[in-house]
Design brief:
By secondary structure, this protein is α/β, with parallel strands linked by helices. The chain has one domain: 3-Layer(aba) Sandwich (Rossmann fold), CATH 3.40.50. The chain has eleven helices and 13 strands.
Length: about 290
Amino acid sequence: MPLLRPRKTWSTPVVEEERLHVPCALCGGTRFVPSLVCDGFSYVKCAGCALIQINPQPVADSVKARYGENYLAYELENEENFLTLQLLGLADAGFPKIERGLMERAGREGEKPRLLDVGCATGALLAVLRDRNWNVTGSEISPAAEHAREKRGLDVRRTGLEDCRFPDARFDVVLASHLIEHLNRPAEFLREVRRILRPGGYFMVTTPNASGFQARLFGGRWRGAIFDHLYVFSKRTLKAMLKAQGFSVKGVYTWGGLAAGTAPAPVKRFADRAAKRLGAGDVMLIKARK
């Protein structure tokens, strides 16, 4: 049985928008070569550092306008599955050990550890962590922020991270799951994350892996290559961007060998195990520290 075309994740339709040519977000280069050719749009690759990006890039206001009520409906429909995947990824990256250490400190000092989830969607993960004695805060630009506040009673700001204006060294842990690839200025975002982390604090960033098995197999048909992903990072380019912003990379974890429905179940199980063992999974989580 041949491999089937993978079903891509939610994305806004390809439309004409105001766009600007921008320098590479990683190295500042201005020379690009063709990369992934998708349905109605394409990516280029920086000739200097190999960061894959849409360029010319939609302006920030156009990007923000994409995340309306349709996005909220998508998040609500998939909330349980997304939460399960987030918890599994955090477990792989050693989050329970970090949690135990911070809770022990909280027991001595009498102050709950602080955690920020940027792009927290409906707040499902924040609600779980609040119940585990974290002091939690979220940032979310879509109507999901209101859902998190009204239905779960969470402190979620409906704005981007930079506009939250948190104090320096505010948080012990910052999470960003499937967010950084949507941002116009990912390096500035990482700089802000580092500013608001306490010394020794952890940042865990999850994003599609352009150096994974599926990306190499499917090319422009890869499910991570969607119109809403302004950047698709490889393990090398994301680690380089984190290090350039002063982070120390402590671990890289990947999962996902073949998308559901693209191959017979035994083939998928084998591919999933192999991709995880080889670090070639479709999704990666990088654990970094200030």
